[in-house]
Amino acid sequence: VDARNIDGSTPLCDACAAGSAECARALLARGASANPALYSASPLHEACMSGANVNAAKLHETALHHAAKARNADLVQLLVEFGANVYARDNRGRKPSEYTWSSSPAAKCFEFYETTPLSLAQLCRLSVRRAAGRRGLARMAELQIPPRLIRYLCYD
């Protein structure tokens, strides 16, 4: 299930890039590595770049709540970069930051994001990506804007 294609990505990476949650679940159920060693983007990066909803909630918990509980500062940073809401509340009324230890790297990451607004450029990128939707993201390269801006919008 972790066989590589010519680009070096795994079937899970391809499923995430295509937005196929059903396929991704099936691969994970059969033992696919969620964090394979890659030369390019991880399955999570692929899913985010392909327009996955980083604020999707299951029982009022978002991926950011799970990242906080795992005390994974890198994951917190990645999710916030792709638009995760640091103020989202779960069914207990708790923000993700309330699941971290005060001295942990994840807590420091949340403290930064809760007190420092995203840059205007980042807010614009998130707004354009939301407005484009999943189908629009696939056609981003067709926009009549400078290639550098297209790369920025696509996280390249």
From TrEMBL:
Pfam families in the cross-refs: Ank, Ank_5, SOCS_box
Keywords tagged on the record: ANK repeat, Repeat
Stretches forming ANK repeats: 7-35, 59-91
InterPro entries documented for this protein: Ankyrin-SOCS_box_domain, Ankyrin_rpt, Ankyrin_rpt-contain_sf, SOCS_box, SOCS_box-like_dom_sf
Domain SOCS box: 112-156
Gene3D superfamilies xref list: Ankyrin repeat-containing domain, SOCS box
PROSITE patterns: ANK_REP_REGION, ANK_REPEAT, SOCS
Biological processes, Gene Ontology terms: intracellular signal transduction; positive regulation of protein catabolic process; protein ubiquitination
Source domain of life: Eukaryota
SMART domains: ANK, SOCS_box
Pathway where it operates: Protein modification; protein ubiquitination
Family, per entry: Belongs to the ankyrin SOCS box (ASB) family.
PANTHER family associated with the record: ANKYRIN REPEAT AND SOCS BOX CONTAINING 13, SOWAH (DROSOPHILA) HOMOLOG
UniProt protein name: SOCS box domain-containing protein
Source species: Chloebia gouldiae
Organismal lineage: Eukaryota, Metazoa, Chordata, Craniata, Vertebrata
